[in-house]
Amino acid sequence: MLNRTNASFTALLLAVLLGFTTTGSAIAQAPVRGTNYVELSPPQPTETSGKIEVIEFFWYGCPHCYALEPLIDPWMKKLPKDAVFKRVPAIFNDQWGVAARVYYALDAIGEEERIRAALFDAIHKENLRITSESAVEEWLGKKGVSVEKYKAAYKSFGVESRLRRAAQMTQSYKIDGVPTFAVQGRFVASATANTDRQQLLSVTDYLVGEARRGTAKK
Question: How far is CA 1 from the centre of its chain?
Fold first, then answer.
């Protein structure tokens, strides 16, 4: 799990590689509040009326977000119909803010989903510098993205607004690393609190059920 507390980026990577295993074991018992997940106080407002909101806080530069990505699509397709999945780029500093800007600019022009896997590969396998505007623009051009549309979106008012919202959510959800999942503004499950990627997704599924039960009680 990547977080903001390590003294250097190298130390950060070493810490997360040791801290989040790659085994595929599913959670064997009911998740424990305070161990596998936390309940937010106060709960945060959601933006999807009538649906259970599931958010993945992530960063393009995170090796564990990259490793988790191939599991997201098949898992997302199995989410119940009353749940909706969203991604929010966590923002802890300027470097993470640049990556978030890239995400929102691509999303604004309808290209993020199409090239997400290739972009993750380029960052983690080809050493693409996500903080280099020129390098990213050159790479996007090779992938068939309209660089002019991307550049217009990159510093647009809409993207600026979404960046401010992402930074605010990173704080209000008390996110301290990625990947982290939040459910219905009430529950947060992080990579640090769970032994592997599959357990993190299983705990998130459990929290969707908890959110549904909580809604039914109202």
Answer: 11
Q: Are 169 and 186 in the same domain?
A: no
Residues 167 and 184 in one domain: no
Residue 59 inside a domain? The answer is yes
DSSP code at position 190: E
Counting beta carbons within 10 angstroms of the beta carbon of residue 144, is it exposed (0 to 12), middle (13 to 18) or buried (19 or more)?
Answer: exposed
Whether pLDDT at 208 is above 90: yes
pTM for this one?
0.86
Residue range of the domain that includes 146: 95-174
Sheet of 180-183, strand order: 38-39, 187-190, 180-183, 52-58, 83-89
Q: Are strands 177-178 and 2-3 parallel, antiparallel or unpaired?
A: antiparallel
CATH assignment at residue 127? 3.40.30.10
Q: How far is CA 179 from the centre of its chain?
A: 6
pLDDT one-digit tens code per residue, 55-80: 999 999 999 999 999 999 999 999 99
- Residue 214's pLDDT is what? 79
Residues 159 and 130 in one domain: yes
